[in-house]
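hiii so um. not sure if this is the right channel but i have a protein structure encoded as tokens and i wanna go backwards to a sequence. like what aa goes where. can anyone help
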């Protein structure tokens, strides 16, 4: 019997290969990841991450699980806003976590932070463990995103909050065409020039194009069991925040 396939950017590959290839990409870009984020988005990813925190509104004493947390951008912001709390950063690519731990914020916040290597689709945590679950530009890379959402629901405590930040689709054909030109022609070249790695950034733009649109992803959030599920577009829908509650 042939194995189930999944997409990897615009390619179709066996499901069993995807996590390894995603790890390969982020392992190779880890050292340049933060610089590239600023270059490709002209710093706008920072505004989107701040918008995620505005909507999440962290409170003192909360426990956050930041999945696909990479170099810690979300966890640092969460702890900064909560004042006092705890954040666990989980990622499948250890070199991303290693880069995160080198950052100045990681040293200053060390007592409130854990860094865990693990898979979003099989979280190494007990049921009902966290007040908030965030995932920023991570779920698009999952082999089975619905399983990651199911896991988010399991590890959140009743009353806990899910917040997903991800690239999305611009609901305007003309703007989408302009954005596609930028994505497919500029971003891979920037990847080549800054990180000497065109292929990883070609994967990035292809995976963005393949990801479900706002409404389709909202259905997935609901299917995982989340109540009061909503979304807000950021920058005309280039990115989007989805929120849901474990009621
Ligand atoms: N959250 C960070 C941010 O917003 O800057 C990093 C996002 S980075 C684009 C995507 C991250 O997802 C990578 O660090 C990658 O290793 C991680 N990732 C991909 N698949 C994963 C999985 N199945 N479980 C956990 N992390 C995963």
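sure thing!! here u go:
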């Amino acid at each position: 019997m042939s194995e189930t396939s999944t997409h990897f950017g615009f390619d179709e590959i066996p499901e069993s290969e995807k996590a390894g290839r995603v790890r390969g990409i982020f392992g190779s870009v880890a050292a340049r990841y933060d610089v590239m984020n600023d270059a490709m988005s002209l710093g706008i990813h920072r505004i989107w991450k701040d918008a995620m925190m505005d909507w999440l509104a962290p409170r003192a004493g909360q426990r956050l699980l930041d999945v696909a947390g990479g170099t810690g951008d979300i966890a640092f912001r969460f702890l900064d806003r909560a004042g006092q709390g705890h954040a666990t950063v989980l990622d499948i690519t250890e070199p991303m976590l290693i880069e995160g731990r080198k950052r100045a914020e990681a040293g200053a916040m060390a007592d409130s932070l854990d860094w865990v290597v693990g898979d979003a689709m099989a979280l190494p945590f007990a049921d009902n463990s966290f007040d908030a679950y965030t995932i920023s530009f991570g779920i698009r890379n999952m082999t089975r995103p619905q399983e990651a959402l199911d896991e988010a629901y399991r590890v959140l405590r009743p009353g806990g909050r899910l917040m997903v930040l991800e690239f999305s689709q611009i609901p305007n054909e003309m703007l989408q065409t302009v954005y596609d030109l930028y994505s497919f022609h500029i971003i891979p070249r920037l990847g080549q020039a800054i990180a000497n790695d065109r292929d990883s950034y070609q994967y990035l733009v292809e995976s963005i194009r393949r990801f479900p649109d706002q409404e389709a992803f909202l259905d997935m959030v609901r299917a995982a069991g989340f109540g009061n599920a909503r979304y807000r577009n950021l920058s005309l829908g280039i990115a989007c925040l989805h929120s849901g509650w474990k009621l």
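oh and The two ends are 41 Å apart (CA to CA).
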